[in-house]
Amino acid sequence: MLFKQSLFQSVLDRLDTEEEASEKEKVAHRIRGLNVSFAATVLGGETPEAHRADDAYRDNLGDPIILPEPEAEPEPVPQEPEPPVMPEHLGRTSREEVAAELAITSDDTREALQEKRRNFAKANHPDGIAVLFREQATIRMTLANQLIDEALRRLRR
Fold first, then answer.
1. N or C of the chain: less Cβ packing under 10 Å?
2. Are 48 and 42 in contact (CB under 8 A)?
3. 1 pLDDT band (50/70/90 cuts)?
4. Percentage of residues in the chain with pLDDT exceeding 70?
5. Does the structure show a pLDDT above 90 at 146?
6. How far is Cα 39 from Cα 41, in angstroms, rounded to an integer?
7. Which phi and psi angles does 5 have, rounded to 5°?
8. CB burial class (10 A; 0-12, 13-18, 19+) of residue 25?
9. How far apart are CA 136 and CA 124, in angstroms?
10. Torsions phi, psi for 33 (to 5 deg)
11. Residue 26's pLDDT band (boundaries 50, 70, 90)?
């Protein structure tokens, strides 16, 4: 204990005196009236808000280039797209016509039949045909799959 004070109390007193001294130093170095910034006005009497960095950049560019207005062309009349033409092979939807296209014989192997299925699907699958003709393509694919499946069953026997 120093001078009838506890150690803790003496530390608190010292901190208070240091704080008062630092406040006096701050006040002594402060200039009144310049709370915000030191830049009050710019040459020419303009305020700092009037000067912007992008304005200085534009000043260096010179006069703006004014392009002549292009002559207005009449807008083309939108033409409706022509409806798609149905491929000739999609018109053949009977079982006999599809069988003739596949040309399945008793000599065909399993691999040959699968190859015929793939080739037929490339030309006739409904996903690759215009929406208007998907029904015909579906019929043709159904018939072709039935014919090839029957031929595969006969091979197993």
1. C
2. yes
3. very low
4. 71
5. yes
6. 6
7. -120, 150
8. exposed
9. 9
10. 95, -10
11. low
| CB-based burial, 116-152: b 16+ in 10 Å, e otherwise | bbeebbeebebeebeeebeebbebbbebbeebbeebe
Q: Look up residue 91 and give its two tokens.
A: 């018109």
> 114 φ, ψ to 5°?
-65, -35
* CA dihedral over 103, 106, 111, 113, signed as positive or negative: positive
Name which of 146, 83, 73, 148 is nearest 114 in CA terms: 148
Mean pLDDT of 141-153: 94
- The reported pLDDT for the residue numbered 20 is 81
DSSP helix/strand/coil, 2: strand
The two tokens of residue 59 are 């000043």
Distance of CA 79 to the CA centre of its chain: 31
Axis-axis angle for helices 134-156, 95-102 (nearest 10): 60
Q: CA geometry: angle at 46 spanning 42 and 49, to 5°?
A: 95
Q: How far is CA 78 from the centre of its chain?
A: 29
Structure-block tokens of residue 81: 């797209």
